[in-house]
UniProtKB/TrEMBL annotation:
<dbReference type="GO" id="GO:0005975">
    <property type="term" value="P:carbohydrate metabolic process"/>
</dbReference>
<dbReference type="InterPro" id="IPR036514">
    <property type="entry name" value="SGNH_hydro_sf"/>
</dbReference>
<dbReference type="GO" id="GO:0001681">
    <property type="term" value="F:sialate O-acetylesterase activity"/>
</dbReference>
<protein>
    <recommendedName>
        <fullName>Sialate O-acetylesterase domain-containing protein</fullName>
    </recommendedName>
</protein>
<dbReference type="InterPro" id="IPR039329">
    <property type="entry name" value="SIAE"/>
</dbReference>
Length: 194
């Protein structure tokens, strides 16, 4: 994260940490919030970029969660300034979701699918190529006294085959979905190809 973006959002650049004994070093999380920017992004500021694919990671998931919206938008703003505003016309941002990634965890084991989606989003969003890249999108949720229906649009594939109506699960908003007991088994009633 660019240091100025952190300052604008009220996030201290450095964290106070106890001094580690020389004879017992321990690997801890990054001590300076801008280490990755300084080491991995800044060296490329003299080159021309057309876009960026950003993987958020989770090491800092418990820190400054109330300032994420500020820090993410400021990061984009300062990246544009760092590249002398040559990137101001990059207005499109795409977040890949993995609701169909067979996982009960926010850390998907099958990273190939996420990477594939990201690479195709770059082709579609940045270069305007006509390729499918979109994640499954929950179109609507309907409640009735005896059932609940979730309509999902998934344009990423054209030949979904319903082999077994069982085995589909949902986790409700506000639940900690990494716990298996919070996933609710549901039945797929049909697949409608558009």
């Amino acid at each position: 994260m660019p240091p100025k973006a952190l300052q604008d959002c009220g996030i201290p650049i450095n964290r106070d940490v106890p001094i580690q004994p020389y004879d017992n070093p321990s690997v801890t999380t990054t001590l300076n919030h801008s280490n990755l920017f300084n080491a991995m992004i800044y060296p490329f500021t003299c080159t021309v970029v057309y876009g960026a694919i950003w993987y958020q990671g989770e090491t800092n998931a418990g820190y400054n969660t109330d300032k994420y919206a500020c820090s993410f938008s400021k990061m984009i703003q300062y990246w544009r300034q760092t590249w002398n505003e040559r990137a101001n016309d990059i207005t499109d941002i795409y977040f890949p979701f993995v609701i169909n990634n067979y996982e009960f965890n926010v850390r998907p084991r099958y990273k190939h699918d996420v990477g594939y989606r990201l690479s195709r989003s770059g082709l579609a969003v940045a270069y305007g190529q006509q390729v499918e890249f979109q994640d499954p999108i929950v179109q609507s949720v309907a409640y009735a006294t005896d059932s609940r229906t979730v309509h999902i649009i998934y344009t990423g594939v054209s030949n979904i085959e319903l082999r077994n109506p069982n085995g589909f699960e949902v986790c409700c908003q506000g639940s900690l979905c990494s716990k298996d007991n919070l996933w609710i088994p549901v039945t797929i009633s049909n697949v409608c190809l558009l």
